# Entry
Amino acid sequence: MTDQEILEKYREKIEQNMTQLYEQLNLKDDFEKQAYLEEYQKRFIHGFRDGLKNGMAKKLLRIAKAMLQKNMDVHTISDITGLLRPQIEEITDAQR
# Structure
């Protein structure tokens, strides 16, 4: 998903948040409002991408855990999930 697609998908929520922020800060100047909007959008996109990345990492760990429970070997799990051997071994150690 591109930055523009993210902003479009969450446009209404961003607008609501910005309206509240403008009121809280008593911003009237359009230049200031635009500066706050641009910074907010940058941070929103960064947070969105971080959330996706963290969510995907957690999902891979859950998949690896399920594979270990099915007695699959670490090498195969690593090949399929892309996780490193030490990451998989951490799951194994945690299950003991």
